């Protein structure tokens, strides 16, 4: 490497030139290589010295790997010493009566099949010490790598490798690996105890051997033998029977046929006479048919079946979880050792560390068995020396990810089959077997196969009728017979004491075995049977719901999953539909959830596109309000049943379905007659948050022992509950129940939606919404909620002291606080995908993007409402710069006005595809919130011209809503809210005159209160001075007085000019959110403020 080349490459990188992807990749790769060699931090002499160390490391690594590769050691044994080893695996005996068994090729065979323990020990100890020459090499390489890392300022060698590999940090990696280890260790210990028990039984059969019943000792060299022996006994495999389906000639012919097909080659049989001159052995021959070979080797026997029997396949499947678990444990030992030796705490640590003892300690902890004495396992670990140093963990990460993805696929593709799978990581940990995906699929088509392939320790029943209940019995929040309540810190149930009650429930989620359920370290739930909660009327409520909607139930469910669910994905579609399709739905689906789905779907009654034939009618052709069974169901009756049944669930048996029912009922548009959902849903929201915390939704479930799909569902429900609480807190003006420090939930990602069978929603009908877009909408709404919640806590706090401090601060302090929120909103808007724009409407598709954009505008209005209030309360008061005060006020009010124009343009631009889509609960009050904002701007106007402008804008806004309200429930509700909230305000009179009169009256009252205590001398002054004081207030007393000191902006007199100005300031997509105007506002405010008050550093906007 040359420094001149580095300088040139760095210059190209600094210019930020637009390179093609391949060139940019090459540039980044080369710069990374130079940075790894210190060109950005070291001088030439230091680089030269470092290069010598690197060359030394490379030479040592080559020598280390060569020593392992060329090792030819082994042990000599007599036939008696290897008794039990199959004849095919035995080596030929020499003249001295012994045979040589190499460590590289025969160690596993000898230690797993030979019966003599002395043979095991001799083989294990010899193999463990076979590469002793690598001991000094290992230590020197570790020291040199650490020295190179610390020279560049890194903490250790591992930290220099992470930026180019899978893990984000050593802390994350340590947490992940130890979590995997903690999950597998209990199973490893149980397996160790089973093997020890097998050893005890075997020793008892030996003459003269006496072994105590509680003896769990296991010499490390005997483990493989007794483990193999136990597997052969518990999970036998007939290798010979399986081998009959793979005869050499037939298998080789099939392989050649595959090669011929894939590689477009031709393979012709060679005649025996042509082989005579080239054959080196009598067994070399041409190809023969499968039948000829079989009859030759099995004279007089019938041909075996063409397909391998299911029983043989089941034998292999039954051993698969144990093999995976064993391999993973061994991999974990190596990975943890790799990271430990490459991340020493100090420079001196590698010189003092006993690497063999450290490796043995990891083996003892992870696999519950150590290594033979004097073994040197670290001397044969080539992965640490051929490019995988501090990176071998990637295999574990990818392996666990593959298991999770595969198990999730099997679970969701086999929902109605007896082979539905749990998260395979849990099966590996528990020792349960999971059929492969192809066998599961085959079992679905042929139920008899699933009976033959039944696995050991499975929770599933063998009949399709019980498959759904078996699937749910693996969950924590949707268990068919049990509900689980979170045990938090400080409760009566001390987590440390639970082990004294029943230590077997550790990482266990089967409520039949214990009243406690621990799903992770320190996370425990209290299990209670549903029948103990007094829920005897649950089935009758569900039956009543079904009677009300019959025969429209399936059509309504289809409507819900085509229109509502994609935009508000809080249900697991696969689980719901599986339960719904049962013959007796009342047994499987709770009444509140069932009624909530029906109620929401009824809002799109006319959108059903079911065929006109068959037993289920098309919804849009049935009558509304009729008494026959073909009419539209009674929504009020459904709502009453749902509310009554929901209260019973909340009190007696809360589950995830309870949270789902609450959320869906809260999404209903307020009814005009106040009989159903009146819109004042704060009480139900409070209950929702309480149930969510009861179920532990406020705790991160990422490492819990529950199915992967339930983890995603829990995260979605947690965020849905949080969003419901925060937006309700805003629109109802109530203190939030959710505290950020208590709700420890990670941000939503697209992974949280995996496994939800939504791929068939985009079916081309005019009322379908794209599933992927709906998921992104939900994620970005959650991110927007975080910004809104922070602003709500800052500007509208219910803490009396905090509110008093904020109210006492001046307007500039408020603007400074607003700026940070505005920047967060800008970042949110910048990161919004194109598919979530308002114009992203596809033909014959409904588009729910509107409620996301409306929520954004309400967040902005909430902020500017605070600015307007703050300016009205305490405007800038500098008597020496009256014009500057007024200019600052005008600037802020112009920005507030621009926000109003943007949101009005948004409402006017709503298309039928937007209006007829799903709008969530806050939409109606959000539109009413805009009316309040206009009224505040009107009330704080500087004069009649500005007041008239805002009065006209309010009339225009009402008209925009009225022309869009027909058939749109949330717009109708918004108009009603607007009429009820501020209907007593007389906007025909100037707010300037009204406010001035009110101020005069207030000042007169204050003076009259003071007069008795000031003596009769004040009587002569009286109210005349009060009136005079009100008419000649000092500049800065009110917004009106301050603005009156300068000429009124001519733009205020013409609303059309204002509209044109707003459009011109926002030419790009971000202009829909007024981002450009916000940035201009704060830049102008900062510049103006520094001009007005150059010495006032305390108020400088940063």
Automatic annotation (TrEMBL):
Cofactors: Zn(2+)
CC terms in the record's Gene Ontology section: nucleus
Gene Ontology MF terms: DNA binding; metalloendopeptidase activity; zinc ion binding
Xylanolytic transcriptional activator regulatory domain location: 681-753
Keyword Hydrolase carried by entry: yes
GO BP, sorted A to Z: DNA-templated transcription; nitrogen catabolite activation of transcription from RNA polymerase II promoter; proteolysis
UniProt keyword annotations, A-Z: Hydrolase, Metal-binding, Metalloprotease, Nucleus, Protease, Zinc
Parts of the chain that traverse the membrane: none
The family this protein is said to belong to: Belongs to the peptidase M3 family.
Protein name, entry field: Xylanolytic transcriptional activator regulatory domain-containing protein
